[in-house]
C-alpha cells in the first residue's frame, strides 16, 4: 500500500497507539521508527514463542543495543507481555516503547496500568481528506470510506467486505466475545439503522430479537473493538430541555455501508445522508484527537427536536455544524443553527452541503462539504477568522 503522510504526531515518551485494524498503524510506525526493534504479535510463530516465554523480549532488545525504539504490534494479543514491558521501562530509560493495539477491551483486562501511567494513549483514525489532498474524492469516500487498507486496494468493495468479515470472524467469533454469533450478526444489521442517529437501545433490541442487556453488551463490544463511537448531547449552560440519548456512529462510513442492508424499501438518499454525516463525524473526531489541547465532539438536540448535528467544544473555540446531503441551501436547513446561535452567540456556525458555492446567510457559513473536509487540519478550524 502506498504510504500517505499522516497528521499524527508521536509523543517523545512511551505510548499506546490504538486504532482499528487497517488504519495504518504498522505502516506509520515503520515510517516514524525505521530502526526500531519490531515485534509483530499477528505473526503466529512470534506470538507462540513469546506466549511461552514473554521475557524473550529482553533478549530481542539486548541483541540491538543501538535501537532507541521498540514497537510491539497488536499488543492486545498478549497482554501478559505488558508485565515485561513495565520492567524494561524501569530499567532501560533510553528506550521508547510504542505499543499498537486494536482492542481496548483486552488491554484493559490485561492491565494497561501495569505501565504505571507512563504510557500515553493515542489514537489513529482512518484517513482525513486533507491527508489525501488531491487524491480525495467525496463520492468514493461515501461509497468505500477512508480506511487506508480499503483506499489503497484495486477492488475496494471486495476488501471492505472481507474486512467486515475479518472482525466478525477473528475478533468476535474466534475470541469468544459473543456467545451467539448469529445474534451478533443481526445486531450489526440492526445497529446500522442507528448510524448518525440518536440511539434507542430498546428499538435495536426489538429489531434483532434479543434482550436490551444483550444489546448493551454488544454495543460495548463494538466500542471496545474501536469499531464505533457515541457522541453525547452538548449540555453546557443549557437554556432549554435537551435530549439525553447519545448519537451512534460506526468509526468509518465504509464499514457502515458494509453492514447496512439495502433493498427496494431502502431509500438511497436516506443511506447517503447517513453516510455523509458519518464521514463528517469521523473527520471531526480525528481532528479533536490530533489537535493540540482538549476538544470534545457533541451534538445538540432540544426536546422539541431542534437539532444541530455536531458541536465541537474545546480550547480552540465553540463550533456548530449541520450536514445536509443536498445541493441547495433551504431556509429550514438553518433552523437548528439559528437556535443554537441564540443560546450561544459566541459560536461559529457552519452548514455543510453538496453544492459548490461558499455562502454566508445570517452569519452562518454554508460550505461545500468536500471543501470543508479538505481544509480540516489539526491546528486550526476551516474558515476560522478569529
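^ Assign residues to that structure.
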Amino acid at each position: 500500500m502506498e504510504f500517505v503522510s499522516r497528521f499524527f504526531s508521536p509523543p517523545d515518551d512511551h505510548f499506546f497507539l490504538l486504532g482499528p485494524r487497517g488504519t495504518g498503524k504498522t505502516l506509520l510506525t515503520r515510517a516514524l521508527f525505521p530502526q526500531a526493534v519490531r515485534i509483530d504479535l499477528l505473526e503466529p510463530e512470534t506470538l507462540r514463542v513469546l506466549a511461552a516465554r514473554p521475557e524473550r523480549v529482553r533478549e530481542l532488545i539486548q541483541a540491538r543495543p543501538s535501537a532507541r525504539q521498540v514497537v510491539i504490534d497488536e499488543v492486545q494479543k498478549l497482554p501478559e507481555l505488558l508485565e515485561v514491558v513495565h520492567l524494561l521501562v524501569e530499567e532501560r530509560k533510553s528506550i521508547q516503547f510504542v505499543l499498537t493495539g486494536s482492542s481496548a477491551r483486552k488491554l484493559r483486562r490485561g492491565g494497561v496500568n501495569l505501565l504505571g501511567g507512563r504510557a500515553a494513549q493515542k489514537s489513529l483514525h482512518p484517513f482525513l481528506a486533507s491527508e489525501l489532498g488531491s487524491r480525495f474524492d467525496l463520492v468514493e469516500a461515501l461509497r468505500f470510506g477512508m480506511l487506508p487498507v480499503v483506499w489503497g486496494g484495486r477492488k475496494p468493495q471486495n476488501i471492505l467486505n472481507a474486512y467486515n468479515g475479518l472482525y466478525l470472524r477473528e475478533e468476535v467469533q474466534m475470541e469468544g466475545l459473543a456467545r451467539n454469533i448469529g445474534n451478533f450478526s443481526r445486531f450489526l444489521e440492526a445497529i446500522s439503522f442507528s448510524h448518525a442517529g440518536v440511539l434507542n437501545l430498546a428499538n435495536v433490541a426489538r429489531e434483532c430479537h434479543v434482550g436490551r442487556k444483550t444489546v448493551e453488551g454488544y454495543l460495548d463490544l463494538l466500542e471496545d473493538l474501536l469499531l464505533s463511537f457515541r457522541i453525547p448531547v452538548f449540555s453546557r449552560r443549557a437554556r432549554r430541555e435537551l435530549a439525553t440519548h447519545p448519537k451512534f456512529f460506526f468509526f468509518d462510513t465504509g464499514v457502515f455501508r458494509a453492514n447496512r442492508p439495502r433493498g427496494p424499501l431502502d431509500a438511497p438518499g436516506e443511506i447517503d445522508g447517513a453516510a455523509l454525516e458519518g464521514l463528517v463525524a469521523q473527520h471531526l473526531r480525528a481532528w479533536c484527537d490530533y489537535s493540540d489541547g482538549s476538544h470534545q465532539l457533541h451534538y445538540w438536540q432540544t426536546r422539541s427536536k431542534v437539532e444541530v448535528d455536531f458541536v465541537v467544544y474545546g480550547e480552540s473555540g465553540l463550533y456548530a455544524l449541520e450536514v445536509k446531503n443536498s445541493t441547495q441551501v433551504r431556509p429550514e436547513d438553518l433552523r437548528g443553527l439559528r437556535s443554537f446561535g441564540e443560546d450561544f452567540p459566541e459560536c461559529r456556525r457552519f452548514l455543510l452541503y453538496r453544492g459548490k458555492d461558499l455562502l454566508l446567510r445570517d452569519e452562518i457559513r454554508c460550505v461545500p462539504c468536500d471543501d470543508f473536509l479538505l481544509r480540516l487540519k489539526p491546528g486550526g478550524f476551516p474558515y476560522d477568522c478569529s
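The radius of gyration is 22 Å.
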